[in-house]
Specification:
Blueprint: H1 3-34, H2 69-72, H3 76-83, E1 87-91, E2 97-109, E3 137-142, E4 146-152, E5 158-169, H4 171-181, H5 199-205, E6 223-226, E7 236-239, E8 256-259, H6 270-275
Antiparallel strand pairs: 1-2, 1-6, 2-5, 2-8, 3-4, 4-5, 7-8
Length: about 280
């Protein structure tokens, strides 16, 4: 075969091999693209989540967050209403967390309010928490044996009484605390709706005593408040406060607020509900 013919044949074979190589690479890319994703190893255990899925890298927008000073710095009435739906958290010494959604509050409006402990502007060692910055706890004793939990609001001597919670977490611990602390306790197990449906019951269920007086709810390590889960605004009933019959005209002012229809409220006012439908 002449040299020129051999050269032409060699070039044709080289071009053929080049075209085959390109085609093979193209098929490989297509095959890889069509392959199903690799399956997780069948170890019987879930795959370890990456940092973006870890509970230690949670997104504040998707999880409850501790309420700060700006939330509490508002007038008593608006704060009492704003509390409804928020979550009160109590951390015990053994790190057990007790949680409850606030469903009932009462506002006390300072010196002008005849039912407030600060009426007339009087300040004592007992009610000092009412005159401290918004978010300060004011805990007092009634009947010489029961505690009530209040949170100071905007304005000297103003605060909000927490009257009832819907228990969310640590219910069995709440039940044990109530059974241990309530006076004249019977052997009957308390129902969920009976655990925190009153200001003193709330304190018993969360092991709150006078030692919490004047603590800062925005920084305390044993108790704080978190924003409630997203959802529709609760229907709120405004009614007269409970147990302030000697406060004259102030006894009838609609300064108690509760979530309509909640079975965890301490006292339901049917008349107020009918007029506010």
């Amino acid at each position: 075969m002449p040299a020129s013919s051999e050269a032409r044949l060699s070039r044709r074979e080289g071009l053929k091999k080049q075209r085959l190589s390109v085609a093979e690479r193209s098929r490989s890319k297509v095959d890889v693209a069509r392959m199903p994703p690799l399956e997780e190893p069948c170890s019987g255990l879930p795959a370890t989540p990456g940092p973006q899925r870890s509970i230690y890298f949670w997104n504040p927008k998707d999880h409850p967050t501790r309420l700060g000073p700006e939330f509490f710095d508002q007038p008593g009435v608006s704060l009492a209403r704003a509390f409804l739906g928020q979550v009160l958290v109590r951390r015990l010494a053994d790190d057990t967390e007790l949680r409850g959604r606030i469903v009932e509050t009462e506002a006390y409006l300072g010196p002008e309010d005849a039912a407030a402990h600060s009426r007339g502007g009087r300040q004592t060692a007992r009610n000092r928490g009412m005159f401290m910055k918004p978010g300060t706890l004011y805990v007092y004793i009634i009947y010489g044996m029961y505690f009530c939990l209040n949170v100071s609001s905007q304005g000297d001597g103003s605060c909000v009484l927490l009257r009832a919670l819907e228990p969310l977490g640590g219910l069995e611990t709440m039940r044990q605390l109530r059974s241990t602390l309530r006076k004249g306790a019977s052997s009957r197990a308390l129902k969920d709706r009976e655990l925190c449906n009153g200001p003193s019951k709330l304190c018993q269920a969360l092991a709150i005593d006078k030692s919490f007086d004047q603590r800062d709810l925005t920084t305390d390590g044993a108790m704080w408040m978190e924003r409630g889960p997203p959802g529709p605004e609760p229907s709120v009933v405004a009614a007269a406060r409970v147990g302030v019959g000697r406060a004259g005209e102030w006894a009838q002012k609609p300064l108690r607020f509760y979530v309509r229809g909640s079975p965890f409220v301490s006292v339901v006012d049917r008349t107020a509900e009918q007029t506010q439908t």
